[in-house]
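Quick one:
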Amino acid sequence: MPAKDELLGIVIAGGRSLRFGGEKAVAPFAGRPLLLWAVDRLRTACGEVAVNARPGTEAEALARAQGIAVLADAAGDPDGPLSGVKAGLNWARAQGASSLAVSPCDAPLLPEDLYLRLRAAAGAGAAMAETTGEGRQPLCAIWPAAALPRLTEALAGGAHPPTWRMLEELGAVKVRFDRPEAFANLNTREDLERLERQAAGYQR
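Output:
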């Protein structure tokens, strides 16, 4: 298994959250911003964690206030999570890391051992979570830093292929998790309330 400091992590928080009516990343969940739940989960397996966020956003301000590195999409890259992954891979390579763990900012119930298990399965390659009944969870994944040229080529000209397809082209190992509800993400305020009730049920 690679050393912890050879794996860096990034939270993808660059979306526009139109259906949510505000920035999801800074919305409180059980008293803490969603962004920080994601950061702390990545830290269980990663030597350092950064946040992919658009300049001038509340997510950027929150991350900087916490002393977390903020990475913006490269100019000309399309909207979408792969542009954030590319920014993360550039950063990981510059830090001398071999791999990058990727997390969404809006799935607060993810398993605590998620990235430890993905790291163990990935080795020097890629891995992604999959759940019983729902299949691939491509925003919960590990990418090798060596994938940067391939991803850069895939995004050229404004294209944005499906994230799962890129991971499968890299030969990503799929790691099965039996509780698909733990991977639920939120798009609306109602989703947030529902997941908070769900989390309270787990704690009973």
